[in-house]
Amino acid sequence: MEHSLAISTHFLARDARFDKEKPYSMRYPPETDIPQSNFIQDKQQVRLRDMRQYKDKLSFDDCGFQVMDLQSSMSYQDFEDENKLKTVYREEIAANLKSLLGATHVLVLDHVIRRRHNAFPISTGEDWEHEQPTNLIHI
Fold first, then answer.
1. Can you tell me the mean pLDDT for 126-137?
2. Are 38 and 23 within 8 A, CB to CB?
3. Taking the CA of residue 103 as centre, how many other CA atoms within 13 Å lie in the half-sphere pointing to its CB?
4. Confidence band of 1 (pLDDT split at 50, 70, 90)
């Protein structure tokens, strides 16, 4: 049985401007008259599918990505601990990737923990404790 969900999301609109100007968005208001963002958003209806049912058909060599299982020793609460994220979780990810890809070395450069604040997407005017879900498709 296919698990899917119809959603609305935003993509960067195709626009001739971006042939000459790189799209950008600053996290802070600039001190000059430069716009904070030059994004032109294009709202699209898409269907999200649960990729786990296709994981045996999606390979890194064919798709450029792969879905993998990870049995972590981390608890939900451990994800609040930056030290555990760096010393335990990143190491688990690296070990799993080395095994899956046959790599001799893997370096996990960064991570982002996103936890939705109750007020999101309405700004409270204060910094969020965690990164919030994104509302723009990105890679």
1. 76
2. yes
3. 12
4. low
DSSP SS3 for 25: strand
Distance CA(44)–CA(7), nearest Å, equals: 8
Most confident region among 1-10, 55-64, 87-96 by mean pLDDT: 87-96
pLDDT band for position 28 (50/70/90)?
Answer: confident
Q: Tokens 């296919």 belong to which residue?
A: 2
DSSP letters for 39-93:
--EEEEEEEEE-GGGGTTT--HHHHS--------S--TGGGG-HHHIIIIIHHHH
Residue located via tokens 């450069």: 109
First to last CA, the chain: 28
Residues 6+ apart with CB under 8 A from 12: 18, 23, 39, 40, 41, 42, 136, 137
